[in-house]
Amino acid sequence: MALLEIRGLAAEVEGKPILRGVDLSLPEGEVHAIMGPNGSGKSTLAYVLAGREGYSVNAGSVRFDGEDLLAMDPEARAAVGLFLAFQYPVELPGVGNANFLRTALNAVRRARAEPEIDAMKFLKEARAALKRLSMSEEMLKRNVNVGFSGGEKKRNEIFQMALLRPRLAILDETDSGLDIDALKIVANGVNALRGEKFSALVITHYQRLLDHIVPDKVHVLSEGRIVRSGGPELALSLEESGYAGLVAEAAA
Amino acid sequence: MSAALRQTGENFSARYQGLAPRLPGPPDLRRRAAAWFDRHGLPDTRDESWRFTSLRPLAGIVFSRAEDQDDTAPSLLARLPPTEAPLLVFAQGRMRADLSRFPAGGQAGLSVASFANEPSFGNVPESETEPLSALNTMLAEDGARIAVAPSADAGTLVLLHLASGHAEHPPAFHPRHQIRLGAGARLTLIEIALGTSVYLHNPLTEVVLAEQAELLHLRLQDESAAAFHLASLHVALGPGSAYESVALVRGARIARSELTAAIVGEGARFALHAAQILGGEQLADITTVVRHLAPGASSRQSIRNVLTERAHGVFQGRIAVDRIAQKTDGYQMNKALLLSEEAQINSKPELEIFADDVKCSHGATVGALDPNQLFYLQSRGVPKAEARAILVAAFLGETLEAIPHSWGRSVLEGAVQSWWKDRPL
Amino acid sequence: MSAVAETIETVSAVTEGGYKWGFETEIETELAPKGLSEETIRLISARKNEPEWLLAWRLKAFAAWQSMTEPGWARVKHPTIDYQAIHYYAAPKKPAPRNLSEVDPELLRTYEKLGIPLSEQAALAGVEGSRVAVDAVFDSVSVATTFRETLARAGVIFCPISEAVREHPELVRRYLGSVVPTGDNFFAALNSAVFTDGSFVFVPKGVRCPMELSTYFRINARSTGQFERTLIIAEDGAYVSYLEGCTAPMRDENQLHAAVVELVALNEAEIKYSTVQNWYPGDAEGRGGIYNFVTKRGACRGRKSKISWTQVETGSAITWKYPSCILQGAESVGAFYSVALTNNFQQADTGTKMLHLGPDTKSTIVSKGISAGHSNNTYRGLVRIMPRAARARNFTQCDSLLIGDRCGAHTVPYIESRNPTARLEHEATTSKIAEDQLFYCRSRGLSEEDSVNLIVNGFCREVLKELPMEFAVEAQKLLALSLEGSVG
Ligand SMILES: Nc1ncnc2c1ncn2[C@@H]1O[C@H](COP(=O)(O)OP(=O)(O)OP(=O)(O)O)[C@@H](O)[C@H]1O
Ligand SMILES: [Mg+2]
Q1: What is the dotted CATH code of the domain comprising A4-91+167-251?
Q2: How many beta carbons lie within 10 A of that of residue C328, not counting itself?
Q3: Residue B138 pLDDT more than 60?
Q4: Is the pLDDT of residue C8 over 80?
Q5: Greater confidence, B349 or A236?
């Protein structure tokens, strides 16, 4: 069985149906891309998977490693290894980045019955990760995402991912707002984790990210449904022709 | 309280006693108001809500009942810039049909009557237990009763309050106005108060907005510099209704403008943009209480004070959010510019919140003109006085520019501009 | 369950079990008879071997108090206090110790349990540089003061005020009541009449106090009031950082605590006064708890003097407290940093007064209120700029956080200016914990409770960072504990 099994998932926000039956199967170790027009429900899917309040699931199921993901609290999902890099990372005034990360890391480790790590060891790991991501150490002292530029926020998400080492990362437009160098850094961050025990759903609008993170599969989400799935070449053809054709096809 | 101020209060009670049998309308409410007023008299600074505003200048003045006729009204009327809009004129607190003007056959959807002919005290909850309201309830003789039929757009109505005072025998009048908009009705009401010499103008205005009704309420208080303006305004907002007001205070020796808004309908919108521009010995006080009693409503209050010479500005504003008023969005900002050594400001913005899912904030700033900005303008060749005027105008700009009614805006802007002329800034 | 509902449940699940300082010490206590009269005052004065002038001073205050009524303007409600049902003097029976080795071991154990080491060795064993000298006040008397000799070598006087009255009468006489006059307000007058002990600090000209000073107040005896009096004087160029902590046993009765604190800062002197107030708050139904009616005021008398108040208020059934600064000296600076957390049926009405008298004076106010349960939390503050305070500056930030829809958060600032060159800015906000912040934390693996704590701590950061290190950690734990419950 695949690591993530989404079957007939339908969800609404404030009475407005957004997801209308999503089927998606992500085998362990694979990276899939999700593309689709603005407002098609990509972020909604990501939030539903991460357990954000306010989204009601009307139908369907989601299994993560065989377990009912939808029954879990957000923190339990993090503990089993789900990580969402937010499209719009949230600011936490007064909360230091280092403190936040260590608290999160130890919470996750506790839940996994792993030993907590002390401040020194944490700092060492954090510094190493920052270095790999070409980020400044000053980042650790600042408050979580407060006053960060758009690109810094995205990199901070990847930094968190690097430390938390999830089994499944959902990257919601982590590439948007990044300059070319940062894009490579983010891609390297993901590629560094790639392996049998790491899977990812990469939500993006652009082929340029997929040049660096080559997906095993590409899915197109439109009006709350996966309307087309294919190999990496699908993304390339979309780049050429846009969604218009696909959307019309699906509607027909 | 000083004995002289108590005496002034007692004179009102005595006048009520004398007039009572002849006063229009049901007597019960008046009697209760009079009893309350008898006990409490005029407020003094030991009252928490009057701590900054002393009525001592009223002490010893014996106000008399306003004479029915006066001749200065037409000349005051002439001060008004020309307008085509229907005009409802009050002089000395009495409706003056002879000076009012309506299109032949009336304005569609709009009905106007007088309190004198159709007395009703409406439904103002505090009208017997708040000093200014009690005084009005006790002595009201006339007033406007304006109603807009459901769904009607009644356009613009200008409501004019003229007063001619007297230095030795100052008159007092206590008009009682009522403005009711039916469901989905709309109206732009422009109120202007003008006067000469010494008098007391003590109006009470009740505004009731039914579901989805919208009132744009523009007010210019330009009373005589020797007069007293003690006004209370009570607004009730039904579901989805909108009350928007722009008010300019520049007249009167002492002005107290109380505004109580009760947001009883879900999703209603309340907005008040007010400015007080004061000089000389003026004391002007805006006191507001906005009660959120229903969910999902918003309130915005923005108050600007420009104070020069020995003027004293006061703003007290409370946003009170009831437990059921979830998703309230309340905001209040009070800014003051002190332009002289002896000007002073007192500000008390208050939040009283009992619902958790709300967003409420207030802010206040007090200061002088920014010397950097002044210097910047001067360095570009603008003379100092003009530079100051530009900056003060910019400070007030936000309040006036937003007025979505061109005649109304020109009246208020004109009042600001003529204010400069008399003042060495 | 929605995150918010859970948060509310979490928070409201706090029971008296959450108060870890609620034990009582079995110790023989001498009590004055209940009630307040001239006789009581004479007894207190006699017990303390006070000079005649101080007795006269107390009696004057008592006379003033008798003509006063309890202030009614604060947003707090409580049954009428019977001032005749209180013991105004309670002291451990054993004779006063002359040095630490003579302190009753039961008392030492009490303070150990509270985490306050009264043995200098134990304190010294801690990290160098984080030494804190402690004055421990138990009910009406100071039972021990540590590091006195070290301090004396630097010229700093740190002792119980009752001792200062005897040893340094000229200083006490000069400054006592000079900031908070005996008839200042109802509770200050009461305190002046019956105050029993408290700390006295004198930092002479040019001296930087070599360590943090702290007083730890403990109410133990039943039906007593605590009326301590603290007086801190920093002469020209002196610096001192002073910390105050307090706890009390859990009881069904309400106990009265009416303290007065006076600070005097002369030219270029600086006093930092920090409080972590953790008096027993009462139980989940609002039974018991301390009535904390406190007058704290500092006078920045000298040019460029500085006084800052930092407080973390988590305890007490009722808090009525407005640490203030009188900014007389030119260029003097006042600050007020406050976190007030109320839960269950607690009521807090707290804030500050900044009176700007001198030119170029500056003040900063940062207030963070957190209301949960059925509590009410009010910020009440006054900033007044007098005509001579040219170029005065004030910045005020008041934020309130509501947790649950049974509590109230209120903000009542008074802003007054009579000088055109002064500049004041005031901002206040009220909101609940943002859903997206909670979700973000939880999606990183933090439990709901930890997420709330983290966000609340972040909300209070600006204030907590003003506390000395050891206190900041303590305060953080206290905030978490006050919000603690079983996460469901
Ligand atoms: N809280 C909400 N209330 C109402 N509508 C919402 C809400 N959240 C999302 N929507 C709507 O749901 C639809 C899907 O939104 P979503 O954010 O999932 O799109 P998306 O595919 O991620 O788009 P983009 O590419 O622009 O990021 C949009 O039409 C959006 O406006
Ligand atoms: Mg999106």
Answers
A1: 3.40.50.300
A2: 19
A3: yes
A4: no
A5: B349
pTM for the predicted model, two decimal places: 0.85
Percent of chain B with pLDDT over 90: 78
pLDDT band at B73 (very low <50, low <70, confident <90, very high): confident
Reported as a pLDDT band with limits 50, 70 and 90, residue B211 is: very high
The residue that leads in pLDDT, A55 or C28, is A55
Does the pLDDT of residue C199 top 60, yes or no? Answer: yes
Which residues in chain B touch residue C417, judged by CB atoms under 8 angstroms apart?
Answer: 336, 338, 344-345, 366
Q: So what's the ipTM on this one?
A: 0.86
Judge whether C217 and C246 are in contact, CB under 8 Å. Answer: yes
User: Does any CB of chain C come closer than 8 Å to the CB of residue A100?
Assistant: yes
pLDDT, one tens digit per residue, over B245-267 is 999 999 999 999 999 999 999 99
Q: Are B285 and B53 in contact (CB under 8 A)?
A: yes
C454 contacts on A by Cβ (under 8 Å): 92, 95, 99-100, 103
Taking residue C66's Cβ as centre, other Cβ atoms within 10 Å add up to 11
Q: pLDDT tens across C18-70, in order?
A: 666 666 667 677 777 888 899 999 998 998 889 999 999 999 999 999 999 99
On whether any CB of chain C is under 8 Å from the CB of B323, the answer is: yes
Q: If DSSP states are collapsed to H, E and C, what string results for C291-325?
A: EEEEEEEEEECCCCCEEEEEEEECCCCEEEECCEE
For residue B104, the model assigns a pLDDT of 83
What the block records as the tokens of B272 is 């008040």
B76 neighbors B92 (Cβ within 8 angstroms): no
Phi-psi region of B267 (alpha: psi -120 to 50; beta: other; left: phi over 0): left
- Predicted pLDDT at C482: 77
Asked if residue B171 lies in contact with residue B66, where contact means CB atoms within 8 angstroms, the answer is: yes
Q: What angle do CA B372, B378, B384 make, to 5 degrees?
A: 100
Do β-strands A82-85 and A168-172 pair in parallel, antiparallel, or remain unpaired?
parallel
The answer to whether A22 and A12 have CB atoms below 8 angstroms apart is no
Q: Are C156 and C263 in contact (CB under 8 A)?
A: no
Report the SS3 class of residue C263. strand
Of B347, B358, B359, the CB nearest to C415: B347
Nearest to C346 by CA among C81, C17, C82, C76: C76
d(CA C443, CA C436): 10
Nearest to C442 among A75, A94, A99 (CB): A75
Q: Which of A33, A78, A45 is nearest to A200 (CA)?
A: A33
Nearby residues of A169 by Cβ (< 8 Å), 6 or more positions away: A83, A84, A85, A161, A190, A193, A198, A199, A200, A201
Instruction: List pLDDT tens digits, range B366-382.
Output: 999 888 777 777 777 67
Rounded distance, CA A180 to CA C239, Å?
53
For B145-160, what is the mean pLDDT? 96
Beta strands in A129-194 (DSSP E): 168-172
| C167 C-beta neighbours (distance < 10 Å), count | 12
- Run of H or E including A104: helix A97-111
Phi, psi of B51 (to 5 degrees): -65, -25
A173: three-class secondary structure by DSSP: coil
Shortest CA distance to C89 belongs to which of C161, C164, C33? C33
**Does the structure show a pLDDT above 50 at C114?**
yes
Closest CA to B163 of B206, B200, B191, B189: B200
* C-alpha span between C338 and B122 (Å, rounded): 46
* Residue C438 near residue B369 (C-beta atoms within 8 A): no
CA gap C76, C349 in Å, rounded: 7
- Residue B232's alpha-carbon distances to B199, B203, B350, C241, in angstroms, are 17, 7, 19, 51
Judging contact as 3 or more Cβ pairs under 8 Å, the answer for A and B is no
Residues C488, C485: Cα–Cα separation, whole Å: 9
